[in-house]
Write a structure and sequence with these properties.
disordered N terminus, mainly alpha, 84% helix, 19 helices, 430 residues
Length: 430
C-alpha cells in the first residue's frame, strides 16, 4: 500500500511539473506584461500547492523584474527578498548572485546608492565564498562608484583601490581609466589634492598611450584646475595653455572654449596677457550671444583696469556689463555693483559709489536670505532623519511589519541622509 501511495504521489508530482513547465513556457512567450505576470503567478501558486520549491523559485525569478518594470515595485521587492531565502536554501548560488545584483540595480534606480552598494557587497561575498565566475574588478568598481554617490568617501576609495590593483594587473586599460577617474574625483572631494594629481597624471599617461586626443585634452584641463586649487598658478597656467593649444590644433574655435580662455586670463599674473585673453573671450562670448559670460568677462576686464589705476577704462567696461543686466543674473550683477562702487570711489564720486554699494548689499542680502532658508531646510532634514531612524528602530523592536516594508522606510531615511551630506559638503566647499 505504501509503495503504491509513493508511486501515486511521484506520478502526481511529475504531472504537476509538466503542467507548470507548460504554463511557464506560455508566460515566457506572452508579449503583454500584465498577462505574463498573471500566468507566472498561476505557476507560483501551482508550484506552491504541489510543493515544487525549485519550480516555484524559477517562476519568481522570472516574474520579479516584470513586477519592477510594470509599476508593481512592492511585489517585485518582496519577491526578491523571498528569493534570497529560497535560493540560499536550494544552493542556487548563480541565481542568488543575480538576485543580489537585481536588488542593487533597483535601489540604484531609486537613487538609493547605499542600499545598492550593500547588495553588491552581498554579491561579492557570495562570489568569493563559492567561486562564481564574476568579474571582480567591475564589481569592486561599481561598489566604489555607489559608495561615492552615497558620499561614503573612505569606503569608496577602499573598493576603488582594490579594483585598481586587479585592473592594473590584468592590463584592462578601459576599466582602469574609469576607476582612476572616480579615484581622482574622490580625492578632490576630500581635498587630498596631491593624490588627486597623482591619479590624474596616471589617466593622462593612459590617454596619451591610447591616442584619445579629445579626452587627453580634457585631462590637461582637469589638471589645470587642480593645480589652481593647490595654489600652483605657474603649473596651472602651463596645463591651461597646453589645453588651449591642443584644442586649437583640433580645429576648435574660441567660442567653443570661452571658459578656458577666461581661466588662462585669470591664471596669468601679467596683466597685459590677462587682458588679451579676456578680450578674446569677450569677442567669442559676443559671437555666441552668451550674455551671462559677456557680463562676467566685462567685470573681470573692469577689475583688471582698476588694478592698473586706469579708472576710465574700468568705468567703461563696468557700465557695459551693468547694461546687460536684466535681473536674471543676481550673482554677476552683485559683483558688477561692487566693482562699480570701487571705481566711483576711486573717481572721488562718493555719492554714486554709495548708491552702487547699496545695490550690491541689496542683492547680497537677498542671496543671503535664500542661503538661510536653505540652512533651515537642512536643519529640518536633520530632524526628519533622526525621527525616521527612530521609527525604523521601533519597527525592528516590535517586529510589526514585513522585511520589504522595513526596507521602504530605510529608503526614505537613506535619501534624506544623502541630501544632508550633499548640502553639508557644498557648505564646506563654499
Amino acid at each position: 500500500m505504501t509503495v503504491l501511495l509513493l508511486l501515486s504521489l511521484a506520478l502526481q508530482s511529475q504531472s504537476d511539473s509538466v503542467q507548470i513547465a507548460q504554463l511557464l513556457d506560455e508566460a515566457r512567450n506572452t508579449v503583454n506584461a500584465i498577462n505574463a505576470i498573471e500566468k507566472y503567478e498561476r505557476c507560483i501558486d501551482m508550484a506552491d500547492r504541489a510543493r515544487l520549491k525549485y519550480l516555484k523559485s524559477t517562476c519568481k525569478l522570472e516574474v520579479a523584474p516584470l513586477y519592477i518594470s510594470n509599476s508593481q515595485s512592492d511585489k517585485g521587492l518582496l519577491t526578491y527578498f523571498q528569493l534570497v531565502n529560497s535560493l540560499t536554501e536550494q544552493r542556487r548560488f548563480q541565481e542568488l548572485f543575480t538576485t543580489y545584483t537585481a536588488l542593487s540595480t533597483y535601489y540604484a534606480s531609486r537613487q538609493m546608492p547605499k542600499s545598492a552598494a550593500d547588495y553588491l557587497k552581498d554579491a561579492l561575498r557570495l562570489s568569493d565564498s563559492v567561486s562564481l565566475n564574476a568579474d571582480k574588478p567591475v564589481l569592486l568598481y561599481e561598489i566604489g562608484k555607489l559608495e561615492l554617490e552615497a558620499l561614503e568617501l573612505d569606503l569608496a576609495l577602499e573598493y576603488l583601490d582594490k579594483a585598481d590593483g586587479i585592473a592594473s594587473q590584468e592590463s584592462r586599460k578601459n576599466l582602469l581609466l574609469k576607476i582612476l577617474r572616480l579615484k581622482a574625483k574622490t580625492y578632490e572631494t576630500l581635498n587630498r589634492l596631491d593624490e588627486a594629481v597623482r591619479e590624474n597624471e596616471r589617466i593622462l599617461e593612459l590617454l596619451e598611450d591610447s591616442g584619445d586626443r579629445v579626452n587627453y585634452t580634457n585631462q590637461l584641463n582637469n589638471l589645470g584646475f587642480i593645480e589652481q586649487r593647490r595654489g600652483n598658478t605657474s603649473k596651472a597656467l602651463d596645463y591651461f595653455l597646453q589645453t588651449l593649444e591642443e584644442r586649437e590644433e583640433m580645429g576648435l574655435k574660441d567660442e567653443e572654449h570661452i571658459p578656458l580662455l577666461m581661466n588662462v586670463a585669470i591664471t596669468y599674473q601679467n596683466s597685459k596677457e590677462s587682458k588679451a585673453y579676456l578680450n578674446r573671450a569677450l569677442q567669442a562670448a559676443k559671437k555666441s550671444k552668451n550674455t551671462a559670460l559677456q557680463a562676467e568677462i566685462l567685470d573681470l576686464l573692469s577689475v583688471a583696469y582698476l588694478n592698473e589705476d586706469d579708472f576710465y577704462n574700468a568705468q567703461i567696461y563696468n557700465q557695459s556689463g551693468l547694461e546687460l543686466m536684466d535681473g536674471s543674473m543676481p550673482e554677476v550683477e552683485m559683483e558688477l555693483n561692487l566693482t562699480a562702487s570701487v571705481v566711483y570711489e576711486k573717481l572721488l564720486e562718493y555719492e554714486t559709489a554709495l548708491e552702487y554699494y547699496k545695490a550690491y548689499l541689496e542683492i547680497k542680502d537677498s542671496l543671503d536670505v535664500a542661503k538661510r532658508l536653505s540652512q533651515e531646510e537642512l536643519a529640518q532634514q536633520q530632524l526628519y532623519l533622526q525621527r525616521t531612524e527612530k521609527q525604523i528602530q521601533e519597527v525592528v523592536d516590535k517586529g510589526e511589519i514585513k522585511d520589504y516594508q522595513l526596507q521602504q522606510l530605510k529608503l526614505e531615511s537613506e535619501n534624506k541622509d544623502i541630501q544632508l551630506k550633499n548640502q553639508q559638503l557644498d557648505a564646506k566647499q563654499k
